[in-house]
Amino acid sequence: MKAFRIGIIGIGNMGGALLKGLAAKKGTQVFFAEKDSAKRRVVRRVCPRAKALSLEELTKTSNVVIICVKPQDLEPVLDVIKEYLTAETLVISIAAGVTLKKLRRLLRHDLLARVMPNLPALTGNGVSAFTVADSRASRAVREIFSILGSVLEVDEKKMDAVTAVSGSGPGYFAFILAEFRTAARRAGLSEKEAVFLVDQTFGGTALFLGKTGLHPMEMVKRVASPGGTTEAGLSVLKQRKMGKILAETVKAAAARSRELKK
């Protein structure tokens, strides 16, 4: 694909993040379709390079169409755009639980991709996992979604696990972070001190592991001196079977992802 002419349908969180990032990219033309007039006005102010079009015109004009509507709103959109696709139009869906098989059936089209971005993508720190129906799509998907952070291609059969891990993962992490802040306050720290120390510790640890490549369990060994404070705290996590709790958390989310496809 020599030059991207990208049409984004639906300007919610992810659609807006993609629009903003792509509009700043030289050599890329960006269009959007959004039924909410207030959102259209915001886009015109924030991204004046992006042109608002109807679904029909957007599909005719774009060589990449990214569908960012909710799963329940997807089929009416596909019903409109399918008449205007060419064999070379790449269609990307970020609708959770909508399979490539279903997209192919509804669109009668083969150049397709599914992407699961996560919430940190809104600040360029996310991860987007994707799967494609045609290998020709891989390079374009990777290049487009790299503006939101890291990108990983997976087999479609793994997308439910992806949803449970990277899609839902920020929610689990934020929940644990909030509980850790509460525990810090109960230990005697002020609200400001607890937020600062907990957030810096969590963020710094993630950066340290990323930069060093150290296995997390090796870091545990380095921090936990025999008979020390870390070991005392770890004994509680082990007794309460923290590993099992997290495994069941991911399993439940993956199971729900499978249910939503039915």
Description:
The chain starts with a strand and ends with a helix. By secondary structure, it is of the alpha/beta class. It is 53% helix and 14% strand. The chain has helices at 13-23, 37-46, 55-61, 74-81, 100-107, 138-145, 159-167, 169-186, 191-212, 216-223, 229-239, 242-260; strands at 5-9, 29-33, 51-52, 64-67, 90-93, 112-116, 126-132, 149-153. It contains twelve helices and eight strands. Strand 2, helix 2 and strand 3 form a beta-alpha-beta unit. The chain has two domains: 5-154, 3-Layer(aba) Sandwich (Rossmann fold); 169-260, ProC C-terminal domain-like fold (Orthogonal Bundle), CATH 1.10.3730. It has an eight-stranded mixed β-sheet with strand order 3-2-1-4-5-6-7-8, sandwiched between helices.
